What we know:
Helix content is 46%, strand content 18%. By secondary structure, it is α+β, with helices and mostly antiparallel strands. A hairpin with a 3-residue loop joins β2 and β3.
Amino acid sequence: MISVYLFGKPSWELKLTTPIDAQHVMEKGYDLQRRLRKIGIIIARLQASGWSMVENKTYNLYFHKPGMTKQQTVQELRMLCIGRRWVEVVEDAQAHS
């Protein structure tokens, strides 16, 4: 199973100070846009290779492809040019906790 991290709570993503820095919020908006575009590309590659989204949690999407071992998953990610920076290979049980 593959976990794709989307984004976290605002307090994780932003430096929340008083007063709030508007420029920082705008920069984070551009960063989130770039990240989500990259994640969209990753999702398209996974789907084209037979992976299906099986679960969505608060911050992550989980994809499964029947019959894949962890080692095969790692190899397929390399073949699809999906860096481990963007995804995590997890055991099925981890996704449900």
